[in-house]
Specification:
With 87 residues, this protein is mainly alpha-helical. It contains four helices and no strands. The longest helix has 32 residues.
């Protein structure tokens, strides 16, 4: 499994396995599993799903914040606090 990377350097199977293992520990859906080993394919699938979910959460929070800012009166303490936090 020696694929070429930019610059012509090669990663060993052990290096790839180590990176997949580190990635597995970062993903909540994989971290809590009893079995310590998941296939690289499964780790990458779960990583993609996790990133997609994070993007959705960011979009949802951004929408909620926009609505909150739009509904807050510019003279209120709440609006001032929100603007201060955003800067």
């Amino acid at each position: 499994m020696s694929s070429r990377r930019s610059g012509g350097s090669r990663m060993s199977d052990d290096q790839i396995a180590d990176l997949v293992s580190k990635l597995q520990r970062l993903i909540p859906e994989l971290r809590g599993r009893r079995s310590n080993k998941a296939s690289a394919s499964k780790v990458l699938q779960e990583t993609c799903n996790y990133i997609r979910n994070l993007h959705r959460e960011v979009e949802d929070l951004s929408d909620r914040l926009s609505q909150l800012l739009a509904s807050a009166d510019t003279d209120t303490d709440q609006a001032a606090i929100l603007r201060t936090l955003l800067m």
